[in-house]
Amino acid sequence: MAEGGIPNKRFRDKPHSSLSCFAMRLKPGQEIRECLLSYVKENNLKAPFVLSCVGSVTSATLRLANVSKDTPNEIIEVEGRHEIVSLVGTLADEGHLHAALSDKDGHVVGGHVMGNMKVFTTAEVVIGNCDMLSFTREIDEETGFDELVVKEKV
């Protein structure tokens, strides 16, 4: 990123990566994050991300945004049948996924996926991979968190 949060001109002005797509269906009881990270590792994907995911879960562990000083990074356990209305993120290293889940009344909860996201009936997932890039996660001194680093493959 350039100063002010503007993407590096090189990544903004020209396409620099072809895209490969991988589709799968996860079955009841499988843990989504674990399955996706295993698939990425087994297939040696270097710049993977979730293109699409629809399905349902019976549980999920989500980290919420900082609510206050007393409850930074609050973690909640979502239990019961929920539809996956969104699953997005990168799958480099340990991944960085966010999910939005809807209950039987249409109420939505969302956050950073920590794990325990178990499939209820199905999870239909399409993973994209930027073939000419490499994603890693490295500690960012400014944020203190593992943040995405994008590099062109040589």
TrEMBL record:
Residues 16-151 form the PPC domain. It comes from the Eukaryota. InterPro entries: PPC_dom. Pfam families: PCC. This is PPC domain-containing protein. It comes from Porites lobata. The lineage of its organism: Eukaryota, Metazoa, Cnidaria, Anthozoa, Hexacorallia.
